[in-house]
Structures are given as C-alpha cells and as structure tokens.
Design goal:
Blueprint: H1 14-27, E1 34-37, H2 40-49, H3 61-81, E2 85-90, H4 99-111, E3 115-118, H5 128-142, E4 147-151, H6 164-173, E5 178-182, E6 211-214, E7 217-221, E8 225-230, E9 238-241
Parallel strand pairs: 1-2, 2-3, 3-4, 4-5
Antiparallel strand pairs: 6-7, 7-8, 8-9
Helix pairs in contact: 1-3, 2-3, 3-4, 5-6
Amino acid sequence: MNGTHVYDWRADGMIDYWIKSIVNPFLSAAEVDGVFFDDIYTICEHVSSGVNAGWFAAADAADFCDAAFTALAATADAFAAAHKLPIFSIKGDESNVSAYNRSRYAEVVESHGGMAYFEYWNSWPGQPREESLLQFAMELGQAGVPMQMHAGPTTSGPCNTSTTFPLAMFLVAAAEHSYFAYGSGWNPSTEQSLWLPEYDQPLGKPLGPGTQVAPHTYTREFEHLSVWVNMSDCTTAKITPKLKR
C-alpha cells in the first residue's frame, strides 16, 4: 500500500518464512553487525487506532499487533544469537502509545538481548510525552537494558537550546551502559555529537536510583552532583555541583 509492504504476521508460517527468507541472509553477512528496529510499537499503535485505516479491520488490529511483537522478538533473538546487536528505537511520541503496546514493546526490549535508542530524547519539552519517555527509560535502565539518548535543539519552546533539561533527564534515568549525545541532527552534514560544558564536571557514582519526589518532579544524587528536573517546566532543570568539604 503506497509502496509499503505490510506482512500479516498472523498467517500460518509467516514468522518462519520471515526468519528463513529475510533475516537469515543478513545473519551470514560479515558486514552486518546489528539491526535497527525503527518505530515498531508506535506504528502498531497507529494500526490499532485506525490511523492506517484500510490495512486491517479494526477488530483485527489487536491480534495483528500481538503477532507483530512475536515476530519482533523472534527477529531480535536471531540477530542476538548471531552476535549482532538488535537496537530498538523509541521515539518522542511515546505518550501516544497505549499502556498495552508499550508493555509488549518493553517486554521485547528487556528480554531479547538488545539496546534501546531514544532517538528524540527532548523533542517536546514540558509536554506529557517527555515524562512518559523518562519513565520508560527509568524502567529499562532498572532492567539492565543498555540505552543511548540522543538530544538536540528542539523546533520550538522555551528550552530550544537548553542542554541542562535533556541531560538532567538522562542523569535521572541512566544506568550501567547508558550513553548520552547532544547534536544538531543525524545526517552527515550535521554535528551529531557536541562536547557540552557539563561533561567537564565530575559526576561520581550514583548514590541511588532516580526518584519521583512530587508530581512531574524527579531527583537523583551522585557523588559530586545533585540532579533535579520538573517535567512540566523544562526551564527549571538543575544539575548542581556539590561543595567540596
């Protein structure tokens, strides 16, 4: 439809066909070292909500999404078994995803040997989707999932060029094997990763996990820094060095 191939994962033998005919050739290719799953669960959400009307009857959408998540898990397992890294994209429209589809996607990400890539970490500062992204990252971090957060200047709003807000979000959620990058884009002509002044501040070990202390408000203590972020007001985020005694 419109140049897009839509596989009905519910069909008998469809997932086996997908693995044998589509996935396996990539597993044997030495130049392939991973796979990037782009926007899987939000696309499924669009199917469920009727955005892609005409692909499936509304009554079939839930069954399709269940089968699609099964296919996703099987694909990730195949790449992980071949020592090729599955990377799961998590985009900035997380708040538009139903709790069910999010939980299914989280189950796959947490259990099938890959890493999470938050592609638009600060696309909509101060809006509910940012807080939902932060909570999702906190969940994945506590489950031991490696994470990469990519932030950059937003298209509008009071924190268009703020680096403190997305970095504070990251520090609240960060776990072992968590990484942060701030740049102006993803294309070769852009600066994909800039060195920020905050990187020169000593951080030290975390003294505990990130914690929600009030509605929309999260804090975390590190050996050398205190982090405070209010997700309803991106202008108030703070990364405060501790005084040396």
